Amino acid sequence: MANNLRSFVIGTAGHIDHGKTTLVRALTGVDADRLPEEKRRGITIDLGFASCELQAPDGSPLRISFVDVPGHSHFIRNMLAGAGCVPAVMLVVAANEGIMPQTVEHLAICELLGISRGFTVITKADTVNASQLHDVTSAIEAYLQGTPLGQGNASVLPASATTGEGLEAVRAELTKLAMREHLEASDASLRMPLDRSFVMKGFGTVVTGTLLSGTIHEGQTLQLEPGGRVVRVRGLQTYGRPEQSAQPGSRVAVNLSGVDAADVRRGQTVVSPNTLSAVDTIDAEVRLLPGSPALKHRAKVHFHAFTSETMASGFLYGYETMQPGTVRLMRIKLAEKIVLVPGDRFVLRQPSPAGTIGGGCVLDAHPEPRQRKAVTLSWLDQLKTSSAVGQIERRVARRGTSGITLYSLSAETGWTMDAIRSRVGPALQSGSLLLVSGDLLLSREASLEAAEAILTRLKSGRAARPSELRGQTALCAEVFNLALNLLLCERRVQLADEMVSVYGAGGQPLNAEAERLAKVAQAYEASGLAAPSVLELAQRFNLKETDMRSLVTVLQRNKTIVRMGSDELFIHSAALGQLAALLTTLRGVLMDVARFKQLTGLSRKYAIPLLEYLDRQRITRKQGDQRLIL
Fold first, then answer.
1. Can you give the three-state secondary structure of 478-538, one letter per residue?
2. What are the residue ranges of helices labelled H in 365-436?
3. Range of the domain at 356
4. Which residues on adjacent β-strands are paired with residue 629?
5. Domain-embedded: residue 423
6. For residues 442 and 433, is the Cβ–Cβ distance under 8 A?
7. Residue 343 sits in the same domain as residue 414
8. From the centroid of its chain, how far is CA 216?
């Protein structure tokens, strides 16, 4: 089946008239020049596409797809649109000319975009004698030293599209390169930058692009960004063949309903609904090429990322002019919105005289607009060297007492919800992050800050109702309840007659009820998931059952404890949070009661009510005798 093909996308690069399109035609049998003007002038103006099928060493089919780019300096914007989405490059240098200006610029662009895999083909080998071919090969190899195409296993191969000389060696190199390219399961959300849009008779709107991440299925609902236009997939083709689904790393043509081709343009991106959105401000690490002009604070530049292009203003952290060959942190404000996530690469070009001056990597696509520059600079420096879990912790911490939802964190990082839940798990288990109300993430420091805000309001000595206190602290309900419960458990405040007050001067309780309330809360917290019944607690504290139920009602109202479905079993919210954190690491697993008991160390008396609670909270879903962890 075509869908089982190993596929690989590679872009061409090189100076005008060095034979890129001719070489692609010799390898695939397809003329990538499709425009009448291209055929009339004999040069590539826009992006061209072609593919061929080779054979892997194990005999399985291997599909190679070429993105052919123009070499003329006037069409560098089209070259950038093609190079922005390819994982590897085939650099083409003519034997009769050697390294030329666009060879240099194209190679620099590939480096700035982080394209480190590929090889070089010396075309028109039949136009020079053996001595000249040896000399130009040596010169090219010398020039490539210090670049990704001059290291490791990168080859320099002479070939002629006219005579066929060396084409088998080129095909063998393409096969080797494709076999080394392992597309691992990606944590990235679905994203396909568009490079073409047209109308196909009988089908309607068709868009094409390279699927960077995620999977597209026939019948799927997608979203066009920027704009938020919702569309539906009517049909799919990969490499000219109809498919039910398309995998990351493939060249894809998607037949869309819900939008006219005239309303779709190169530079837009197809994403899953309510995941990624286009942004107009980023923080990035920028490298200026040696030999380029210095870059001033607030300089205007052309910004190129994937298939997008827009004008932008660069705001240098530190304000001092950026010198050639240096690396600096910069805030970039885009004239038009583009879908960008951390780790994306881009290229900067100066408007006049036109030329590539540098590029860089996105660090933050959702920078805090009102944060002091010194704080942002320090945060970015720390973010660059942080692990995936560390990056999440830093992104949550900077939101302070407002916190951030899992969905917002997914949009901010570009990671899927599954990846977010998996990476949040260790931080929840360590206690550095807290999951509030199942969706809101808060740092431990922010929870303490919220608690101090409540305590500060109460230190005037006047008791206050919880609703009044929440309005004074400007905390959201979830964070306020969490902070108030923390203060109650630590006996720093008390709740009596629906009024909150400081626990007492000098640490002495203001009344016996507050002390009993704190002790009961501590008992629930200490018992974890195996909580005692209300009657057992009444006996332990030598209280009437009716008095104990009054205390339990207060704790339940404050969300310190949660009822499991009966009036006898209540569990501390902290224990439930730890259980939810544990289950996030097992998302997608099917689990029966016996395995849940083994996982938690609980008896059936506790396991069944807990599982029913998890079902109600949509943390698990019952499927027959098992539960699917969501």
1. HHHHHHHHHHHHCCCEEEECCEEEECCHHHCCCCHHHHHHHHHHHHHHHHCCCCCCHHHHH
2. 373-384, 388-397, 406-413, 417-430
3. 278-364
4. 620
5. yes
6. yes
7. no
8. 17
Q: Are 8 and 64 in contact (CB under 8 A)?
A: yes
Specify the pLDDT at position 151.
74
3-state secondary structure of 328: strand
Cα gap 150→133, rounded to integer Å: 18
Instruction: Please list, residue by residue across 514-550, b when 16 or more beta carbons sit within 10 angstroms of its beta carbon and e when fewer do.
Output: bbbbbebbebbbeebbebbebeebbeeeebeeeebee
Which pLDDT score, from 0 to 100, does residue 511 have?
57
What are the average pLDDT values for consecutive 10-residue runs of the chain, which has 630 residues?
66 86 86 54 61 83 81 65 81 91 88 89 91 92 87 83 91 86 70 90 87 91 92 87 85 90 91 92 95 93 93 92 94 96 93 89 92 90 91 94 92 91 84 82 92 84 79 87 82 76 55 74 87 90 88 83 85 84 80 89 90 88 88
Residues 6 or more apart whose CB falls under 8 angstroms from that of 604 comprise 593, 597
- Residue 215 included in any domain: yes
Q: Count how many domains the chain has.
A: 5
Residue 510 is predicted with a pLDDT of: 47
Whether 377 is covered by a domain: the verdict is: no
Q: How many CB atoms lie within 10 A of CB 19?
A: 26
The CA-atom distances, in angstroms, between 517 and each of 541, 572, 626 are 11, 13, 38
What phi-psi label fits residue 628: left (phi over 0), alpha (psi between -120 and 50 degrees) or beta? beta
**Best CA proximity match to 217, nearest among 203, 199, 232, 198:** 232
Side chain identity, residue 130: A
Task: Evaluate whether residue 369 is within a structural domain.
Answer: no
